[in-house]
Design a protein that fits this description.
The structure holds two protein chains of two kinds.
Chain A lengths: L3 H6 L2 H26 L3 H18 L7 E3 L1 H14 L1 H20 L11 H23 L4 H20 L5 H16 L6 H4 L18 H33 L5 H17 L5 E3 L1 H9 L5 H22 L4 H15 L4 H7 L2 H17 L2 H20 L3 E5 L2 E5 L7 H6 L8 E8 L5 H16 L3 E5 L3 H10 L1
Parallel strand pairs in A: 4-5, 5-6
Antiparallel strand pairs in A: 1-2, 3-4
Chain B lengths: L1 E6 L3 H16 L4 E9 L3 H6 L4 H21 L3 E9 L1 H11 L4 E5 L5 H7 L2 H8 L4 E4 L1
Parallel strand pairs in B: 1-2, 1-4, 2-3, 4-5
The chains are: A alpha/beta, B alpha/beta.
């Protein structure tokens, strides 16, 4: 692992340049995520600023970009609708506490248990949901809305072919906003829906009653936010590890996410996590160290305070056009090939994760059920045990444990030999169910007058057998 | 003399590699460099489509392994060069910087519309490298 000094100042010039690019790239999405939740743009912009700046110091993966995100925004929608902003902030603070505790307990080690089929389901459902949230700004608002949205989309995809120094969404937004202003076309703009911040965020306590009732309201949301935020942050950390060939401290990252959310709630920001898209932009632009994340957050805030009056003029169809691109990039288009080529159980887990998320509008529930389902499929797959009879020698193939003992016992239902040998050379006893099952088979066969010999137990199976018997 | 072949694990890249090895067999004192570029913009999708970081590493290894084996069989002195970034840009930089004498590259076989949208790596590389290029269909 690099020293702290390297993590901060090992790559100063490239980190600052990449941070500026990322700061620019963060703005459109932060605005759009605020509208998804139904809060003022300030709430998302403050969150992006504080989360980026704090994770730069306390995160475990240098170069990771964390801010307000679509995944967290989608979890917060119904809390905002039912209870309002103060509860969103309180849930953010509680999320921070939960993530900090989970990080201290080593939650990152559990990442192993989340199969990629569940993660695919997660990102695909996320992409679909982000797309759906943009439809109200696109459909039924007149021809010009479509024209501007489609022109934006074309620009977003065409610009990178010629020019990559400034993020394409920003180029598209500047060009299309200029066209809208000079042509005098009437379109809904950001200013029609909210106000921009003109100062740095300040510290305050959310105005909520501190009682059990409040906890009952925010706890389910905070748990969901914790799961979603950690999943996306740890996934993004892995992607950056791979891109940069450097390791990272995932549990420290989990704690860092917690600290950032905890503090952000007190500064009027909504919960956030790592952003895959922006983190990838950061590394591609040369960002490697902590300085890039700090620069991104600081530059974002600087721009908003300086250019806030211009930002409110951005037409909503243009922002929605950019978000359609974000949705398309979030969605994993390789999933269709995955569905055809992956084992059927993995395809099912992926599809069910997507369906549950779209049905419940809750990313966390989909992930949890997906993980449980894939665990069950795994047990089913591993619990295949076969018994073959070769002239009185019964050979056991496959591990013997609680899930495979029934089949094992059934195999000895109809035995006609006078004496048999059960050969465990290609098996392994895992638990007391295994030993119990063997005992049951022996007792049953001996009661029928059949002599049973056990052989071929490997040393750990032998030990277990001796210990329990 | 230095011959390089750019590969990406596709059928066409495999054919390009075979062609490069054939060239290397006929030329005296030649080294073959097998260039593989890890496309950073695909890092997220690659991770999502593989079971674990280890299985991802295996998938990448599988792209180079058969070519190295082929080179060894033909007694061609070959080494693998792994680069990261934008494929066409990285190939161009490497080939020009290391003064490669000849580059062999597979064409992806896109139709003209796909080429317009996605951009053709072989086309772009061909335009910007200093050495002779063979594009293998």
């Amino acid at each position: 692992m690099q020293t702290l000094q390297q993590q901060w100042f090992g790559n100063v010039r490239a980190d600052i340049l990449a941070g500026i690019v990322v700061g620019l790239a963060l703005i459109p999405e932060a605005l759009a995520f605020a509208f998804i939740v139904g809060v003022d743009p300030r709430v998302a912009l403050y969150a992006s600023f504080t989360i980026a700046v704090i994770t730069a110091f306390v995160g475990g993966r240098p170069g990771l970009i964390s801010a307000a995100t679509g995944a967290m925004a989608l979890v917060l929608v119904s809390l905002m609708a039912d209870h309002g902003l103060e509860y969103v902030l309180a849930a953010t603070i509680l999320t921070g506490i939960i993530q900090l505790i989970l990080g201290s307990l080593g939650v990152a080690n559990l990442m192993r248990f989340i199969p990629n089929s569940v993660m695919l389901g997660f990102v695909n459902a996320l992409g679909i949901m982000i797309f759906i949230t943009q439809l109200p700004y696109l459909v039924g608002s007149g021809t010009m809305t479509y024209v501007f949205a489609i022109a934006t989309l074309i620009l977003v995809y065409a610009v990178p072919r010629f020019f990559t120094a400034i993020p394409a969404p920003l180029v598209a937004i500047v060009v299309m906003t200029a066209i809208a202003l000079f042509s005098g076309v009437k379109l809904q703009s950001i200013g029609d829906l909210g106000t921009m911040p003109s100062s740095l965020p300040t510290f305050f306590f959310p105005d909520i009653p501190l009682n059990f009732e409040t906890l009952k309201i925010i706890l389910p949301y905070s748990l969901a936010l914790s799961i979603v935020g950690l999943l996306e942050s740890l996934l993004t950390s892995q992607v950056l590890d791979d891109m940069t060939d450097t390791p990272s401290n995932k549990n420290r990252e989990a704690r860092g996410q917690g600290i950032a959310n905890f503090i952000t709630g007190f500064f009027g920001g909504m919960a956030g996590c790592a952003l895959i898209g922006q983190s990838v932009i950061n590394v591609k632009s040369g960002g490697r160290g902590r300085l890039s994340t700090l620069t991104a957050g600081a530059f974002l805030m600087f721009l908003i305070i300086v250019l806030g009056d211009l930002v409110v003029k951005i037409p909503m169809p243009v922002l929605a056009g950019v978000m359609v691109m974000v949705a398309a990039t979030t969605f994993n288009w390789g999933s269709f090939k995955f569905l055809r080529s992956a084992p059927r159980s993995e395809s099912i887990v992926m599809l069910i994760t997507v369906v549950i998320i779209l049905y419940t509008h809750n990313l966390a529930i989909g992930v949890v059920i997906g993980v449980i389902l894939s665990a069950l499929f795994f047990v089913a797959k591993i619990s295949r045990v076969s018994v073959t009879n070769e002239e009185g020698i019964y050979k056991i193939q496959g591990p013997l444990f609680f899930a495979s003992t029934t089949k094992f016992i059934q195999a000895f239902d109809d035995i006609n030999d006078k004496q048999i040998i059960i050969d465990f050379e290609n098996s392994q006893l895992w638990d007391e169910s295994a030993v119990g099952a063997i005992l049951k088979v022996i007792t049953k066969l001996e009661s029928k007058g059949i002599a049973v010999t056990i052989r071929g137990l490997n040393s750990s199976s032998e030990q277990l057998y001796e210990k329990l018997l | 003399m230095k011959i390089a072949v750019a590969i990406d694990g596709s059928e066409n890249a495999m054919r390009a590699a075979k062609h490069a090895i054939m060239l290397a067999e006929y030329l005296p004192k030649v080294t073959l460099e097998i260039i593989y570029v890890q496309d950073l913009s695909k890092a997220k999708d690659e991770r999502l489509l593989s079971q674990s970081p280890e299985s991802l590493a295996l998938k990448r290894e599988q792209k180079m392994h058969p070519i190295l084996a082929m080179a060894k069989e033909s007694a061609v002195d070959a080494k693998v060069i792994i680069l990261k970034g934008n494929p066409s840009q990285e190939i161009i930089n490497y080939v020009n910087e290391k003064k490669i004498d000849k580059l062999v590259i597979g064409s992806r076989g896109l139709n003209s519309f796909q080429e317009m949208v996605l951009g053709s790596v072989s086309h772009k590389v061909m335009k910007h490298v200093d050495c002779p290029v063979t594009v293998v269909k």
